[in-house]
Amino acid sequence: MTLLSILLQVDTALNTAAAAAPPAPEKISLFNLLMEGGALMIPLLLCSGIMVYVFVERLMVIRKASAIDPTLMVRIQQAVATGDTSGALAACRNNATPAARVLEKGISRLGKPVDQIERSMENTGRLEVYKLEKNVSVLSTIAGIAPIFGFLGTIAGMIILFFNVQHQGFSLETIAGGIYTKMVTSAAGLIIGLLSYVGYAYLNAQINKAVHGIEATSVEFLDSIQQTNH
To answer: Rounded to two decimals, what is the model's pTM?
Structure first.
């Protein structure tokens, strides 16, 4: 009952503000529609803000991680072939990408059996992939809960609408206007959920692309070590 009372008060306040406003031409305004959505538009707006922040932040990180210097492997192979381990490590540290950090771990293990070097690089690679995937699951969570918030807002609005009908009487215009405004939360929730899902899928595709690049670089490095040992 407390939640219903709060929703009733918010809905009454919004309706009072709308009634006090001067008459306007009959047209749909996005801002007015969002205002008509009621109190549950607040968590939906928070979800949309978090969605945009996480997507942009992760996209920048993933793109930076995917920017591998094409000359890096050549310089490392030349340094390793001449025994310049310090130079190879310095080249990796100057690159500052996941692939470079995986190579740095392999270079630091030179002199040990190849299988040990490979395991060390694999462990480092897993850590780098975890860093790339950090917070990406937030988009998946928003894709799931945003439509639920939207439907909850619509249900709460319908409860308020029929409560008002019971106590204030039936009016076709009131019913029609109340229904379409209360559907705003459902539409907003579905749109936010859809965008979150698309963003989640896109970031996962970019992460897979970066992981394939790391794996290809690691395989090339291990092959060069085996050829050097032979």
So the answer is: 0.75
